From TrEMBL:
Gene3D superfamilies documented for this protein: Cytochrome P450 (1.10.630.10)
InterPro entries: Cyt_P450, Cyt_P450_B, Cyt_P450_sf
Family, similarity comment: Belongs to the cytochrome P450 family.
UniProt key word Oxidoreductase: yes
Assigned keywords, A-Z: Monooxygenase, Oxidoreductase
Protein's recorded name: Camphor 5-monooxygenase
Domain of life: Bacteria
EC number: 1.14.15.1
Example GO molecular function: iron ion binding
Native organism: Sphingobium chlorophenolicum L-1
CDD domains in UniProt: P450cam-like
The keyword Oxidoreductase belongs to this UniProt entry's keyword annotation: yes
């Protein structure tokens, strides 16, 4: 969703405040149009997390929902599916109800066998087997522009590298990337100025994914290929073939996860490094710090924010929640929580006890985290080996977008050849 099309605050759709929500907990925070976003998505979320901000706040925007503002709550909610269900994980609610991908919208124990099916192709041992291929893709891209002395990092690397890697793992043609990227953006940053409009945008994009994967599933049923989709399609659930609707949801989720998250993470990370040459120098001087620093990067630049559905009335961190309420979980606010991390906006390669929810927690911990970690490590190693010193072009103004997955574009980098 382009920030130019976001309605001004006075024109945004506001939902009525429910009776059980105290007035002192209400804050006007729009998850798709954060105040101060021109300075950066993480900077804008950090503005929400002030010392006097309650652990749970209520916003009337995007259909009306709670927002968890501290790491302790985000961590506990993710780990507690019996109290905080995944049946609606998007805001606004209309978008969450239109979302049909599995197993992200399932709770244990129904969720468990589907998660095992995904893990079969994305576990650490499997990912290590393709490290050479992943590294070759990164090297080819970087060497394609290293001698020019400039690139648009988002356009020339981040939007290509993880997508090319993932489509190769799924045995899909790179020429399908543009279509799939457009669908992914409407899933994670659905357009529209009312909950109903955003719900319709997401429903249309979800249907687009299903339409794309249906013939692929059919073609690979009974196949013996080692690609991710063939493995998924021929997995059994509780001893029986996977139901058709769940297959559509599972394969679509694989594509959505592979096409929008690492893409944007890499771009946020590289903007920071371009502005902090001292951190880059530290990585070059001590390669071990570079390797250890990958987790610090994930802490600092979390891009996903999803929601959970309150199963029953309860008191949580001193706040009354009602069954059916939605709690939004900006994972950035766990990594940036200054009650858990000293000077959290700084990338500290020597930081100990790094805690974050960038990959979520509990049963829905990201299945693609091993691939993501490797892609980030490879990017840093191969980039710094060829372009050790770089900066943002003078006058550069990256364009930031908030949503279920935060995004950024327009990242002109320059360096001496």
């Amino acid at each position: 969703m382009n920030t130019d099309t976001i309605a001004p605050p006075s024109a945004k759709h506001r939902s009525p405040i429910p009776e059980h929500v105290p007035a002192e907990l209400v804050r006007e925070v729009d998850a798709y149009g954060l105040e101060g976003i021109e300075e950066g998505v993480h900077e804008a979320w950090k503005r929400v997390q002030q010392p006097d901000t309650p652990p749970l706040i209520w916003t009337p925007f995007t259909g009306g929902h709670w927002i968890a503002t501290r790491g302790a709550l985000i961590d506990e909610i993710y780990r507690s599916p019996e109290r905080f269900s995944s049946r609606v994980i998007w805001v606004p609610r209309e978008a969450g109800e239109a979302y049909e991908m599995v197993p992200t919208k399932m709770d244990p124990p129904e969720h468990t066998p589907y998660r095992k099916a995904i893990d079969k192709g994305l576990n650490l041992a499997q990912i290590r087997k393709v490290e050479g291929d992943i590294r070759a893709v990164a090297i080819e891209l970087i060497e394609g522009f290293a001698s020019k002395g400039h690139c648009d990092f988002a356009k020339d690397f981040a939007n290509i590298f993880p997508v090319k890697v993932f489509l190769a793992l799924a045995d899909l043609p790179m020429e399908d990337a543009a279509k799939l990227n457009a669908l992914a953006k409407e899933m994670t940053r659905p357009s529209g100025n009312t909950p109903e409009e955003q719900g319709l945008s997401l429903k249309t994009a979800n249907a687009g994914f299903f339409e794309y994967v249906a013939p692929i599933i059919e073609a690979r049923r009974g196949g013996t290929g080692t690609d991710l989709i063939t493995q998924m399609v021929n997995s059994e659930i509780n001893g029986a073939p996977m139901p058709e609707d769940k297959l559509l949801g599972l394969v679509s989720l694989l594509l959505l996860g592979g096409l929008d998250t690492v893409v944007n993470f890499l771009s946020f990370m590289m903007i920071y490094l371009a502005r902090h040459p001292e951190t880059v120098e530290e990585m070059i001087a001590e390669p071990v710090k570079l390797q250890r620093g990958v987790e610090e990067m994930f802490r600092r630049f979390a891009v996903v924010s999803d929601a959970r559905y309150v199963v029953s009335d309860m008191e949580f961190f001193g706040t009354q929640l009602k069954a059916g309420d939605l709690v939004f979980l900006p994972t950035a606010l766990h990594g940036l929580d200054d009650t858990q991390h000293e000077n959290p906006m700084k990338v500290d390669l020597s930081r100990r006890n790094v805690s974050h929810s960038t990959f979520a927690q509990g049963p829905h911990r990201c299945a693609g985290m091993h691939l993501a970690r490797l892609e980030v490590l490879v990017t840093l190693q191969e980039w710094l080996a060829r372009i050790p010193r770089f900066s943002l072009k003078k006058g550069a103004a990256p364009i930031y977008h908030a949503g279920i997955v935060a995004a950024v574009e327009n990242i002109p980098l320059v360096w001496k050849v």
